[in-house]
């Protein structure tokens, strides 16, 4: 019952935030000096009739809040509208690009988190030894290397030394899909390894130094038991939070690998939409990414209550 | 090892490597604990009580700790040298031969594991019980030491319980495998007097029932008087005096013991102003040339400041490390 | 390794047996739609073009027109042309093409203000005779360049029923595309891949088509595209920029083909506002610039220095000698900082001035080089303003202006291709006063009644020599007033895998077809 | 002992209430839960005396002290300081009060800013209260002599000093502004016995030499007995018993005080002491039981009365107050009927 | 207390090497205009794509004949300055805001935190994009956008730290002595919580360099003819095949600098937090400090 109330409350606040932010973004975009009409007319000849027609079609003569309401109503009923530049169906555009982005996010976060946690724990257990220095050093170096550079360097390397490596075109089956996203996912995973690995390590070290670990040792438990059942369990809770937020945030950072590896995902779509002032796409993608983030943080909160009995559901 | 002794510590030194240098936390301590007695260790904060007691189960981080001396412990299968144990032996020995209770029960329990399960877990590892058997045994133990309602308490997490209750859980945990030696490191310091009285009574009762030997660490002389049979007084990493509890109170032979007793406010004191020991205890970054207490001691002379006093017998079962013990006792 | 044999496009062109021949084309852009009304970018030419036919086709050298959907044509008088439409042509969906479709397609361009509609500016009306399958075009005034228009994409024929039914969706990735061309759209994965297949309903001779399937890959980054080509995943690339040229040149299995097209790169000065309303200011800048350096540094191996009037040599086919002499006498702008001083002295800005030069990321390097040349004069300062590729036209065509109606840019660096090889294609587009308006292609806003008159006269003559006279006269005015400063003309370049051959045409823009790509023997 | 009655109280607290809200910022205010940290507490402190408050952890001792010092706002009740109602004072008056009331904390190390030298910490309050440099410099000299510490300690950082030294410096800091009143919140609990005595002696000196008024909070019965003149025993935020040290210790009236005193460990191993063990823990301060708050753990609990009616704090003679339906040492049947 | 035997120092080899390297970089970028052998914008058509280590051009030249070395150190100035600006925005806005929110809590805190929640809900890169979409691309927009995206975390860190620190006894002592809130927050609490944050700020300088370079690389940050490392990388990427040095040298430079910053700030962190320092073995320590060996070591039974 308590949990149910908590869920309802969280969902409500999520919805409120979504509305607020989407409204803000909607208004802010319209405050920029890009005029939707010129965007839509693009290279076509601009005539008063055309302007009139477009204004009517996109309801640009309505006040902003009405425009917003129309738009959000459409979004809620599954109609994302048409974009300004090519007049394409935004929904279709996004849907066709979602698999790649989701694939990247899921694959990179799974691989990245697992490796990060393994490396972090391994380093923590060997604290102060050369192997810890090596692992922590590696994580530091990774967190320093800009991911777009890493992507480019790896791409150059792959095409030069792995003859059959193909990074172009679309995919027709799941195997090809995996193949397209594997390397980019690994590159994205590096960020996870760098960030999460360090957090895992320091959390794990903190936990290993806490009094209850001494108690567990005094009980005569096996070291592995102490490490994994007690220290790890405690250490992993905050790691999960960070991981969750990183996963949600990585939807935005797919941009870079998508760009470099010519992957048809929503990151690239977003960049070009921003460059072209293609507001309908920007709006919906911001909403989408925000939604993903909020859902993720919601999931984390729920997970927290499961993992950590101390969390009080308020 | 002498007969009737459960624990013998001989010339134990414990050094820690720290960022500020080596800490010589314990510098040649001798300690004997007899079968079935409660042996108190008192002394000021930082004098090495906890370090000594943790050494008994070798709980310090092996990488930054160096032990010297011997720790022998006797259980059903005979004498054992703790410092020579392998990891596996150590693991079997911890909890079943010697168990430990810590000062702050709140942080000493895994915050996200049910209290009961933390004990059951130990049973399952040590006694190869299955989940249900372990649970039954834990609940039985809970009932015995007044953790009621036992079934409910088993399911509770540490944060849902009060300090007194948690300390009981700790005690249950320590005693569940019926150890030969129980080390209680200031188990009541964090508790209120009323709860302290409950816990002391409980420990005493359990000790009498099971015949377990107890090392009881405290800095409260009242608690010593209340529950200990014999006492070791520590100062700056050394054991300065060992005696039965009555001897300590009635015939202190070391100036430090004496001063400690005098500075303790007592009901019977009519004088409002109390005696205090001037100065403060030394840091342990080096070994001392002379007696560590010499700078604060009113009996001290040049010899005290330059030579390390050896332990001398004052009477049967009463020994002290002081050149001036005769002077002290004669006053 | 684990990446052997990948992707759907790995079947190579020359693999024997009865497997189909696949041509893998790489390009940095994706067309926005296959609707001929949207064929504004090269990407569309490389994909959508072969799905359609136009009334006529340009000849391979681009100077004349040939029958296509119109079997024959006739100029009835100065302002009337008739076209005999081919019968029995089928759309790729199997429906037969009717005169209705033809009329619909043409009217669609005029009525709906499409990009190409300026080509129909002179059209009075179209008339279709369903029985005789003739199309009659009535012009408002005599126009010698009309003869080429039916070969441009403005006269692409679409199927009326489908187009009307699809509306805005027509030609998009999730809409239908139907045409009469040799190929048809098979699949389109937005953002990455477009596949064309042979159109079995094509009216032409299917045996002339070597390529069974075209796979078009979108690789936004040019270097990545080069990497893919180098890795053997691409067979055909068009329009590589100078910076990646060396990759293709170094590839053993690629041939670089080039053909002088109509692309001219130039600077356009905004003559409607300060400082370039002053012709001496324009000339001062012109004297700062070393065009040969720009040609070699930016244009590279496949560029030629341009005359001051941006027009490629391929458009000077009529009387090459006369052109040469005209250029020689009128083009005086070579880098000379003393001259800059002189011009400034004559101008309203004897102490120099600053101006905003608009550029896109594509031409940024050129802009930087220009800036270093201009700034070296010590008196004139050039400020670079980079705008998105997608925005540059809204500035250039005047859709985006300051509140007082003035345009933002003082000068802009860009390029233009001609719709046909006749000089009119460039001269009128760039210099005509009628184009100096919002939406017009004269981004300098420069007008001269004298020059307009000359161009009008040229349009109404059919005699080549007389035409040349008007052209060269106008040319002299253009060169002297210097609203545009031509930099270099660049050839159309192609990197083609040695498994295929291709013979490029100067009218790439309208003449490109995969029907002309053949499997190498 | 009528003398007591004639004296004017220096500080008096009347019906002090302080509840802490458990759930912050709740949308629905309906079921907000409160910690009843202090519930209807009244007492007087006379000039020049050490008044002790004793009680178990969480009983609200510190909260009372903090309310008196106006460090936290009270929910209801009144506080008089030197005859003036200071319950609700302006910021300016509050600032002035600050210089007249000072505080000494339990953990001396923590009560000094670790990043500042001792001298900085000592001088700062003088500076803030606009005392002239020559005045406070001289005062520091005096105080260092008074607490018997060498002046060169002043340049050190807190972490370089021992607990005993720091606590003496903390007292010196409190004396910098020459306050009329000092709140000492468990000033010796964190110290070792050997140093404890130094601090307690210093407290006694303050009272005797300077006539300082001190509110001394502690949970150590022996310490309180040693230094205080009068004490109040609090339980769950309410005063159970109040009187002079002799009254409370020698003629215990409240069962809780009795239990508290008897829970105190023996002073000598051979002492024969019977502890009255209290059952269970202190109930939490959120759900205060009906009636007497001690009823649940009381040996003399009487159903129907103790769990129904809250006993009032009342004088049982000579300024000895107790809040019990059946005070010890008084005829039981009678007192119950009185009420 | 006579002798302070320190087992760890600030200048570990890693800190020393990275510190010196960073100092050199900062020095070089500060005096870029003096050190640079060429004007970074001066084109020279006679030396196009000069290879690295060729005469006169140690790192070679780009497609316009501009000297890469000069461009590299001049863009270092832009990149580093930008990074400092970004961190300055973060510190100047984030820290005080966090301190005030954490100290007073209440409605202001709730509002600020909600707003920051929402802002940090948008991934930093995306946030930059949105701001760029609104304010137009350019260096200042980039700096502001990245700066803003860093603020929420700083605010939250400062806030959570002050919320812990606020409970410290010395804060209560300050209150009891009648100090003003401003004094308590900025004179007492700030110095105590800023130390752990400093290593975060040094780290942020590294990420700021990368973030800005990413924006410039995507063409949204620093605009031509000005250049930062991102612009150079973008150029280098475009010219990969004409002269790979144009990509690799700036790439190595960026990676070296950011990695150095990370290693350095890690060193700072270790220094500030002694518990994470590596300890020498007893033997080594005693040898170094000439401490006589005590009795034989007896532990670790299996050894
Ligand atoms: N793991 C350790 N590393 C370094 N030094 C330590 C370690 N454990 C204890 N010490 C030091 O050893 C000395 C003795 O500490 P110990 O904990 O035994 O004191 P104690 O007598 O238990 O004091 P308290 O009454 O405060 O618990 C102290 O100076 C302490 O700082
Ligand atoms: N700021 C606060 N917010 C919420 N609850 C508080 C606050 N301060 C005190 N409390 C609660 O009020 C009750 C009384 O606390 P107080 O600190 O006054 O007890 P105390 O008698 O001083 O205890 P101790 O001996 O542990 O110092 C406790 O339950 C405590 O948790
Ligand atoms: Mg201890
Ligand atoms: Mg308190």
TrEMBL record, chain A:
**What membrane topology does this protein have?**
Multi-pass membrane protein
One Gene Ontology cellular component annotation held by this UniProt entry: plasma membrane
The keyword ATP-binding is annotated on this UniProt entry: no
Q: Where are the transmembrane segments?
A: 12-31, 100-125, 137-157, 177-197, 235-261, 281-307
Q: Does the keyword NAD apply?
A: no
Record domain ABC transmembrane type-1: where: 98-300
Where is the protein found, in the record's own terms? Cell membrane
Q: Which UniProt keywords apply?
A: Cell membrane, Membrane, Transmembrane, Transmembrane helix, Transport
List the InterPro entries: BPD_transp_1_N (IPR045621), MetI-like (IPR000515), MetI-like_sf (IPR035906)
The family note in this entry says: Belongs to the binding-protein-dependent transport system permease family.
Q: Identify this protein by name.
A: ABC transporter permease
Automatic annotation (TrEMBL), chain B:
Q: What is its EC number?
A: 3.6.3.23
Residue span(s) of domain ABC transporter: 7-261
Q: Note whether Membrane occurs among the keywords.
A: yes
Q: Where in the cell is it found?
A: Cell membrane
Q: What is an annotated GO biological process for this record, any one? A: peptide transport
Q: Name one GO molecular function term.
A: ATP hydrolysis activity
Alphabetical list of CDD domains matching this protein: ABC_NikE_OppD_transporters
What UniProt keywords are attached to this protein's entry?
ATP-binding, Cell membrane, Hydrolase, Membrane, Nucleotide-binding, Transport
Annotated protein name in UniProt: ABC transporter ATP-binding protein
Automatic annotation (TrEMBL), chain D:
Q: Which Pfam families match?
A: ABC_tran, oligo_HPY
Q: Which PROSITE patterns match?
A: ABC_TRANSPORTER_1 (PS00211), ABC_TRANSPORTER_2 (PS50893)
Per UniProt, the keywords (alphabetical) are: ATP-binding, Nucleotide-binding, Transport
The domain of life is Bacteria
| Ranges where the ABC transporter domain occurs | 11-261
MF terms (GO), sorted A to Z: ATP binding; ATP hydrolysis activity
Instruction: Spell out the InterPro entries in the cross-references.
Output: AAA+_ATPase (IPR003593), ABC_transp_ATP-bind (IPR050319), ABC_transporter-like_ATP-bd (IPR003439), ABC_transporter-like_CS (IPR017871), Oligopep_ABC_C (IPR013563), P-loop_NTPase (IPR027417)
Does the record's keyword annotation contain ATP-binding? yes
GO annotation (BP), single: transmembrane transport
Which PANTHER family is this protein grouped with? D,D-DIPEPTIDE TRANSPORT ATP-BINDING PROTEIN DDPF-RELATED, TRANSPORT ATP-BINDING PROTEIN
Family membership noted in the UniProt record: Belongs to the ABC transporter superfamily.
Q: What is this protein called?
A: ABC transporter ATP-binding protein
Instruction: Supply the source organism for this entry.
Output: Hominimerdicola aceti
Q: What is the lineage of its organism?
A: Bacteria, Bacillati, Bacillota, Clostridia, Eubacteriales
From TrEMBL, chain E:
Taxonomically, which superkingdom?
Bacteria
Cellular location(s): Cell membrane
**Record keywords:** Cell membrane, Membrane, Transmembrane, Transmembrane helix, Transport
Q: Locate the transmembrane regions by residue number.
A: 12-36, 81-105, 125-153, 201-224, 244-264
Give the protein's recorded name.
Answer: ABC transporter permease
Tell me the protein family, please: Belongs to the binding-protein-dependent transport system permease family.
Sequence ranges assigned to domain ABC transmembrane type-1 in this UniProt record? 76-265
- Annotated GO biological process: transmembrane transport
> Known CDD domains for this protein?
TM_PBP2
How this chain sits in the membrane, per its record, is: Multi-pass membrane protein
Q: Could you name the Gene Ontology cellular component terms for this entry?
A: plasma membrane
């Amino acid at each position: 019952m308590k949990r149910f109330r908590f869920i309802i409350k969280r969902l409500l606040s999520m919805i409120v935030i979504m509305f607020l932010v989407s409204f803000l973004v909607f208004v802010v975009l319209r405050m920029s000096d890009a005029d939707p009409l010129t965007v839509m007319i693009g290279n076509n000849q601009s005539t008063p009739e055309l302007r009139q027609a477009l204004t009517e079609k996109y309801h640009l003569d309505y006040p902003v809040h009405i425009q917003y309401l129309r738009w959000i109503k459409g979004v809620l009923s599954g109609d994302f509208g048409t974009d300004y530049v090519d007049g394409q169906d935004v929904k279709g555009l996004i849907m066709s690009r979602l698999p790649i982005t989701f694939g990247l996010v899921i694959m990179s976060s799974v691989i990245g988190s697992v490796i990060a946690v393994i490396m972090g724990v391994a380093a923590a257990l060997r604290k102060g030894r050369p192997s810890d220095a090596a692992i922590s050093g590696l994580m530091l170096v990774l967190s320093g290397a800009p991911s777009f550079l890493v992507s480019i360097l790896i791409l150059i390397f792959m095409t030069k030394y792995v003859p059959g490596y193909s990074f172009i075109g679309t995919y027709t089956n799941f195997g090809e899909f995996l193949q397209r996203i594997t390397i980019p996912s690994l590159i994205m995973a590096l960020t996870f390894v760098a960030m999460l690995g360090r957090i895992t390590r320091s959390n794990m070290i903190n936990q290993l130094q806490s009094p209850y670990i001494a108690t567990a040792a005094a009980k005569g438990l096996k070291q592995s038991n102490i490490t994994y059942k007690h220290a790890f369990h405690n250490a992993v809770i905050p790691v999960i939070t960070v991981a969750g937020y990183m996963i949600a945030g990585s939807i935005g950072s797919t941009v870079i690998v998508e760009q470099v590896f010519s992957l048809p995902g929503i990151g690239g779509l977003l960049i070009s939409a921003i460059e072209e002032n293609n507001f309908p796409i920007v709006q919906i993608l911001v909403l989408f990414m925000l939604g993903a983030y909020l859902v993720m943080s919601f999931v984390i909160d729920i997970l927290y209550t499961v993992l950590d009995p101390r969390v009080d559901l308020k | 090892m002498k007969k009737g002794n459960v624990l013998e510590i001989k010339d134990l030194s414990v050094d820690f490597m720290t960022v500020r240098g080596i800490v010589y936390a314990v510098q040649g301590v001798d300690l004997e604990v007899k079968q079935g007695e409660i042996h108190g260790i008192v002394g000021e904060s930082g004098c090495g009580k906890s370090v000594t007691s943790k050494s008994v189960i070798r709980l310090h981080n092996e990488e930054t700790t160096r032990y010297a001396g011997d720790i022998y412990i006797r259980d059903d299968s005979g004498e054992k040298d703790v410092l020579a144990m392998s990891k596996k032996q150590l693991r079997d020995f911890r909890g079943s031969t010697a168990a430990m209770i810590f000062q702050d029960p709140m942080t000493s329990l895994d915050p996200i594991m049910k209290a009961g399960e933390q004990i059951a877990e130990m049973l399952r590892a040590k006694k190869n019980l299955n989940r249900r058997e372990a649970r039954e045994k834990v609940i039985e133990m809970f009932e015995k030491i007044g953790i009621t309602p036992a079934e409910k308490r088993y399911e509770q997490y540490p944060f849902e319980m009060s300090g007194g209750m948690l300390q009981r859980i700790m005690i249950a945990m320590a005693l569940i495998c019926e150890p030969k030696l129980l080390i209680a490191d200031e188990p009541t310091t964090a508790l209120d007097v009323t709860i302290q009285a409950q816990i002391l009574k409980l420990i005493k009762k359990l000790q009498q029932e099971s015949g377990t030997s107890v090392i009881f660490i405290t800095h409260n002389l009242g608690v010593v008087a209340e529950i200990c049979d014999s006492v070791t007084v520590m100062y700056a990493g050394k054991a300065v005096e060992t005696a039965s509890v009555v001897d300590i109170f009635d015939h202190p032979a070391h100036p430090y013991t004496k001063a400690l007793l005098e500075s303790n406010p007592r009901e019977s004191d009519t004088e409002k102003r109390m005696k205090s020991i001037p100065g403060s205890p030394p840091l342990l970054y080096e070994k001392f040339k002379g007696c560590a207490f010499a700078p604060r001691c009113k009996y001290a002379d040049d010899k005290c400041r330059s030579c390390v006093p050896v332990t001398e017998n004052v009477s049967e079962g009463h020994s002290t490390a002081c050149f001036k013990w005769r002077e002290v006792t004669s006053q | 390794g684990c990446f052997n044999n990948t992707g759907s496009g790995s079947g190579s062109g020359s693999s024997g047996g009865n497997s189909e021949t696949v041509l893998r084309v790489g390009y940095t852009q994706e067309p926005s739609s296959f609707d001929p009304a949207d064929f504004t970018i090269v990407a569309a030419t490389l994909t959508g073009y072969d799905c359609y036919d136009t009334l006529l086709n340009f000849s391979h050298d681009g100077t004349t027109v040939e029958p296509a959907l119109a079997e024959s044509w006739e100029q009835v008088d100065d302002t009337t042309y008739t076209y005999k439409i081919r019968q029995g042509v089928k759309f790729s969906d199997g429906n037969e093409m009717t005169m209705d479709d033809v009329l619909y397609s043409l009217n669609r361009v005029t009525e709906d203000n499409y990009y190409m509609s300026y080509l129909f500016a002179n059209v009075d009306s179209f008339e279709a005779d369903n029985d005789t399958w003739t199309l009659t075009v009535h012009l408002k005034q005599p126009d010698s360049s009309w003869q080429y228009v039916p070969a441009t994409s403005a006269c692409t024929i679409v199927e009326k029923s489908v187009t009307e039914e699809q509306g805005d969706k027509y030609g998009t990735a999730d809409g239908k595309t139907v045409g009469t061309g040799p190929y048809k759209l098979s699949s389109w994965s937005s953002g990455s891949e477009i596949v064309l297949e042979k159109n079995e309903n094509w009216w032409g001779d299917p045996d002339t088509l070597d390529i069974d399937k075209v796979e078009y890959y979108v690789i936004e980054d040019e270097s990545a595209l080069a990497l893919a080509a180098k890795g053997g995943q691409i067979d055909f690339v068009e329009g590589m920029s100078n910076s990646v040229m060396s990759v293709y040149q170094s590839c053993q299995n690629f041939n670089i083909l080039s053909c002088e097209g109509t692309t001219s790169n130039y600077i356009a000065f905004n003559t409607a506002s300060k400082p370039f309303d002053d012709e001496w200011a324009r000339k001062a800048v012109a004297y700062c610039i070393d065009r040969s350096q720009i040609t070699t540094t930016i244009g590279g191996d496949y560029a030629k220095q341009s005359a001051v009037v941006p027009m490629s040599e391929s458009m000077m086919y009529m009387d090459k000698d006369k052109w040469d002499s005209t250029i020689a006498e009128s083009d005086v702008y070579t880098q000379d900082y003393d001259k800059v001083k002189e011009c400034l002295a004559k101008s309203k800005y004897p102490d120099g001035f600053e101006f905003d030069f608009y550029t896109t990321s594509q031409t940024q390097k050129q802009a930087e080089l220009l800036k270093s040349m201009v700034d070296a004069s010590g008196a004139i300062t050039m400020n670079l303003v980079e705008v998105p590729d997608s925005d540059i036209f809204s500035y250039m065509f005047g859709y985006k202006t300051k509140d007082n109606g003035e345009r933002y840019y003082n000068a802009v660096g860009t390029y233009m291709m001609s719709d046909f090889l006749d000089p009119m294609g460039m001269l009128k587009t760039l210099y005509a006063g009628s184009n100096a308006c919002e939406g017009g292609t004269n981004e300098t806003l420069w007008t001269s009644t004298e020059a307009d008159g000359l161009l009008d006269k040229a349009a109404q003559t059919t005699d080549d020599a007389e035409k040349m006279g008007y052209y060269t006269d106008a040319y002299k005015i253009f060169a002297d007033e210097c609203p545009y400063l031509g930099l270099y003309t660049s050839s159309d370049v192609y990197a083609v895998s040695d498994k295929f051959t291709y013979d490029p045409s100067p009218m790439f823009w309208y003449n490109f077809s995969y029907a002309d790509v053949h499997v190498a023997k | 002992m009528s003398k007591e009655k004639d004296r004017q109280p220096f500080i008096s607290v009347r019906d002090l209430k302080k509840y802490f809200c458990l759930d912050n910022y709740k949308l629905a205010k309906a079921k907000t839960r409160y910690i009843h940290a202090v519930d209807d507490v009244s007492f007087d402190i006379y000039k020049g005396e050490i008044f002790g408050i004793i009680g178990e952890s969480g009983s609200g001792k510190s909260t009372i002290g903090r309310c008196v010092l106006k460090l936290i706002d009270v929910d209801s009740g009144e506080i008089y300081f030197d005859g003036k109602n200071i319950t609700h004072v302006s910021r300016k008056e509050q600032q002035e009060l600050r210089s007249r009331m000072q505080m000494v904390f339990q953990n001396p190390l923590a009560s000094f800013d670790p990043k500042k030298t001792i001298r900085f910490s000592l001088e700062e309050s003088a500076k803030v209260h606009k005392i002239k440099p020559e005045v406070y410099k001289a005062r520091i000299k005096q105080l260092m002599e008074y607490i018997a510490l060498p002046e060169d300690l002043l340049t050190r950082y807190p972490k370089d000093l021992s607990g005993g030294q720091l606590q003496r410096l903390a007292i010196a800091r409190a004396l910098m502004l020459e306050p009329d009143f000092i709140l000492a919140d468990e000033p010796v609990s964190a110290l070792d016995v050997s140093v404890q005595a130094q601090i307690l002696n210093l407290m006694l000196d303050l009272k005797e030499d300077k006539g300082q008024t001190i509110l001394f909070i502690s949970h150590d019965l022996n310490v309180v007995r040693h230094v205080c003149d009068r004490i109040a025993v609090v339980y769950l935020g309410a005063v159970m018993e109040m009187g002079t040290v002799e009254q409370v210790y020698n003629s215990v009236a409240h069962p809780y005080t009795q239990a508290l005193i008897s829970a105190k460990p023996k002073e000598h191993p051979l002492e024969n002491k019977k502890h009255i063990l209290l059952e269970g823990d202190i109930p939490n301060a959120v759900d205060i039981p009906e009636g007497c708050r001690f009823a649940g753990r009381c040996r003399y609990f009487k159903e129907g009365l103790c769990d129904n009616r809250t006993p009032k704090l009342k004088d049982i003679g000579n300024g000895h107050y107790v809040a019990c339906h059946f005070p010890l040492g008084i005829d039981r049947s009678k007192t119950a009927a009185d009420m | 207390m006579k002798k302070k035997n320190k087992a760890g120092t600030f200048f570990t080899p890693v800190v020393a090497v990275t510190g010196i390297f960073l100092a050199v970089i900062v020095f070089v970028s500060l005096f870029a205009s003096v050190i640079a052998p060429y004007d970074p914008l001066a084109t020279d058509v006679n030396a196009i794509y000069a290879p690295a280590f060729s005469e006169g051009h140690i790192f070679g030249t780009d497609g316009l004949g501009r000297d890469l070395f000069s461009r590299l150190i001049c863009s270092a100035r832009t990149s580093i300055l930008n990074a400092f600006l970004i961190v300055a925005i973060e510190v100047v806005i984030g820290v005080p805001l966090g301190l005030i929110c954490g100290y007073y809590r209440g409605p202001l805190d709730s509002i600020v935190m909600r707003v920051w929640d929402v802002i940090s809900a948008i991934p930093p890169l995306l946030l930059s994009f949105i701001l760029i979409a609104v304010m137009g691309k350019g260096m200042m927009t980039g700096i502001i956008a990245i700066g803003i995206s860093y603020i929420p975390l700083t605010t939250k860190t400062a806030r959570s730290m002050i919320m812990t620190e606020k409970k410290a006894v010395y804060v209560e002592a300050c209150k009891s002595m009648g100090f003003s809130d401003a004094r308590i927050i900025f004179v007492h609490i700030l110095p105590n919580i800023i130390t752990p944050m400093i290593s975060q700020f040094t780290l942020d300088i590294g990420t700021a360099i990368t973030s800005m370079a990413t924006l410039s690389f995507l063409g949204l940050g620093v605009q031509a003819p000005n250049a930062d490392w991102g612009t150079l990388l973008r150029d280098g990427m475009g010219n990969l095949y004409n002269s790979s040095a144009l990509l690799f040298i700036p790439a190595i430079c960026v990676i070296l600098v950011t990695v150095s910053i990370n290693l350095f700030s890690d060193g700072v962190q270790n220094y500030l937090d002694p518990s994470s320092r590596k300890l020498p073995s007893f033997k080594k320590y005693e040898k170094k400090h000439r401490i006589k060996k005590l009795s034989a070591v007896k532990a670790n039974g299996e050894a």
